């Protein structure tokens, strides 16, 4: 993720990143608390200036029913459709780990600009 942020800063001639926004799905295999902790360790003493603010949006695991079309939140890994009882369901949300956006400080003006949207990490 930090490589992508640094590449975006270079691509947009930015002095530094101000805000990094991540979308972390409940079933993506990454723990948001551990991501935050790793980010803090990786950016400790970063230059120039303080590290970017990391904003994490947690996305719940949701599935859709192939039979009736009902979309529901999956609790305790129960994938059966609560509307019709079908076992034919597919995950529709909650597996993603996305670098959603990076707001950067432009080198020449000091103005903040959104540099990227929905880049998969």
What report would you give on this structure?
- The chain has 121 residues and is of the alpha+beta class.
- The protein has a single domain, classed as hypothetical protein PF0899 fold, CATH 3.30.2320.
- It has two helices and seven strands, in the order αβαββββββ.
- Strand 6 and strand 7 form a beta hairpin.
Set out the fold topology.
Elements: H1 2-11, E1 14-25, H2 32-43, E2 53-59, E3 62-65, E4 71-73, E5 89-93, E6 97-106, E7 112-120
Parallel strand pairs: 1-2
Antiparallel strand pairs: 1-6, 3-4, 3-5, 6-7
The span between the termini is 6 Å
Shape assignment? elongated
How would you spell out the order of helices and strands? HEHEEEEEE
Structural class: alpha+beta
Strand order in space, largest sheet = 2-1-6-7
Strand content: 35-45%
Text of the CATH class:
Alpha Beta
Q: What is the mean pLDDT?
A: 88
Low-confidence stretches: none
**How would you characterize the largest beta sheet?**
4 strands, mixed
- Output the radius of gyration: 18 Å
Count up the domains: 1
Level of helix content? 10-25%
CATH fold type: hypothetical protein PF0899 fold
Number of helices, counting only DSSP H or I runs of 4 residues or more: 2
CATH architecture identity: 2-Layer Sandwich
Count all strands and give the number: 7
């Amino acid at each position: 993720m930090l490589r992508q942020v640094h590449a975006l800063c270079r691509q947009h001639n930015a002095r530094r990143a101000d805000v990094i926004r991540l979308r972390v799905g409940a079933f993506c295999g990454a723990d948001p608390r551990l991501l935050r902790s790793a980010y803090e360790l990786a950016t400790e003493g970063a230059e120039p200036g303080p590290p970017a603010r990391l904003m994490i949006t947690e996305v719940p695991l949701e599935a859709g029913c192939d039979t009736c079309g009902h979309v529901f939140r999956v609790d305790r890994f129960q994938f059966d459709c609560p509307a019709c009882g079908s076992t034919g369901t597919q995950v529709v949300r909650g597996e993603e780990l996305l670098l959603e956006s990076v707001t950067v400080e432009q080198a020449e003006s000091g103005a903040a600009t959104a540099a990227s949207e929905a880049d998969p990490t």
